[in-house]
């Protein structure tokens, strides 16, 4: 979509919509990490969703864009720019077993004259190298947002185990001084993820199962519902780190088997 050169970027406000696709930027992992592309869905994309009452429905993905806060809604506070796409760039080329995993979210925006501009909109990282370490997410340009905007908040992503986790949020602009859990997460990056409120009764977002075809680059459809209590970017970051932890654990298990043989 656009080059991943390591050039300095100005901070900017994230314009990622509530309906989009997430995929690998290449087929190969380095140090258990992959870079990702976030892009607009196509009209033929479909996503299967299960609601908390265990009813199943299949919705046309383009219809979801009209129903659930499409790009137009996300950009209402930034009318001079529109979202084109984004990259999640990891530190996989400099990573070691003693260094925490990190991602930078770099977005491409168009202004009213059609000029493209790149912005650094968020950073996500673990504090430690151990499995299932807490992930911290910080957005840039938070001082330019209204206090109740979820892009002005900090987040913690926590794994209870590989198939469940939670999201906690702290909004300094609202006077919050500590993290409070706002979402329960069920599923895995391999089989799809569901994001609920803390009671597990209201669905906030869904990440579909990845496309495992050779040219599919594990593409996933992501829909974030109006009820969600977090930024639309959070499911992508959760998915990326969930994949990282799963790959890291699998690599460790394979090494143990090889050492015993």
Structure described in brief:
The strands form two sheets. Strands 2-3-6-7-8-9-10-11-12-13-14-15 form a twelve-stranded antiparallel beta barrel. It has a two-stranded antiparallel ribbon with strand order 4-5.
Largest sheet: 12 strands, antiparallel, barrel
Helix percentage range:
10-25%
Tell me the fraction of residues in β-strands, as a range. 35-45%
Low-confidence stretches: 43-79
Q: Output the structural class.
A: mainly beta
Order of helices and strands: EEEEEHHEEEEEEEEEEH
How many strand segments?
Answer: 15
Adjacency order of strands in the biggest sheet: 2-3-6-7-8-9-10-11-12-13-14-15
Describe the model.
With 261 residues, the chain is mostly beta strands. Helix content is 15%, strand content 37%. The protein contains three helices and 15 strands. Residues 43-79 have low confidence and may be disordered.
Tags for this model:
single chain; 261 residues; mainly beta; twelve-stranded antiparallel barrel; 15% helix; globular
Please specify the SSE layout and strand pairing.
Elements: E1 10-11, E2 19-24, E3 36-39, E4 46-50, E5 56-60, H1 61-67, H2 71-74, E6 81-90, E7 102-111, E8 116-126, E9 135-139, E10 154-161, E11 164-170, E12 180-188, E13 192-196, E14 203-207, E15 220-224, H3 234-260
Parallel strand pairs: 1-8
Antiparallel strand pairs: 2-3, 2-15, 3-6, 4-5, 6-7, 7-8, 8-9, 9-10, 10-11, 11-12, 12-13, 13-14, 14-15
